[in-house]
Amino acid sequence: MKVKVIVNGQAREVPEGTSVAELVSSVAPAVSGVAAALNDEVVRRSDWDATTLREADRLEVLTAVQGG
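Above: the chain sequence. Below: its structure as tokens.
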């Protein structure tokens, strides 16, 4: 079964039980310097594997960028 979620403002369908870690790795080539917020709440990296996505969840994947 698939669930519909919003990732960085775009609708996606993912398999039920997909973790934040799995989805982050599909959108960010490296997880260094990456943060994730699920439904406007920051998810600690140590919780990414245990946090699964549900129907209509909103995930924002943010990448730190150097520069000025």
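The chain has a mean pLDDT of 93.
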